[in-house]
Write a structure and sequence with these properties.
The chain has about 120 residues and is mainly alpha-helical. Helices cover about 45% and strands about 10% of the residues. A two-stranded antiparallel sheet has the order 1-2. Strand 1 and strand 2 form a beta hairpin. The N and C termini lie far apart (about 25 Å). About 35% of the residues are buried.
Length: about 120
């Protein structure tokens, strides 16, 4: 089981969300470092390209694992992508998609009038 778990209440003003992962409430946040990690993983040239990729509404399971993993690590949780891949979330794939959508909305919503991304 991953160590260094961060619990508590999410601060939406900082882009944090809460999610129940492996039966534990976790905080996730796409910090600047987490976004840089995702830019590299998705070979995006910049944040705008990354947001546009997410706004397309199509994600592979591997994409969701990367986003959730980056969000967990961004909030200080020690989760590898392998940990995320084997984690359980209520609702199965729909639950994972809801976490990704909530995290992307908390991160990108309201920027220059853009529509929040929908995985």
């Amino acid at each position: 089981m991953p160590q260094g778990l961060r619990y508590g209440r999410a601060n939406r003003h900082r882009g944090e969300i809460e999610a129940l992962i492996d039966g534990e409430r976790r905080i996730l946040c796409l910090t600047l470092g987490a976004l840089a990690e995702l830019e590299t993983a998705f070979q995006a040239d910049d944040l705008t390209a990354l947001a546009e990729r997410f706004a397309g509404g199509r994600m592979k399971a591997a994409d969701m694992i990367r986003v959730i993993g980056a969000g967990l690590r961004g909030a200080g949780n020690l989760f590898s992508d392998e940990d995320v891949a084997s984690a359980t979330v209520e609702g199965g794939i729909a639950g994972h998609a809801a976490i990704v959508a909530d995290l992307l909305t908390a991160t990108f919503a309201g920027r220059r009038g853009e529509t929040p991304p929908d995985p």
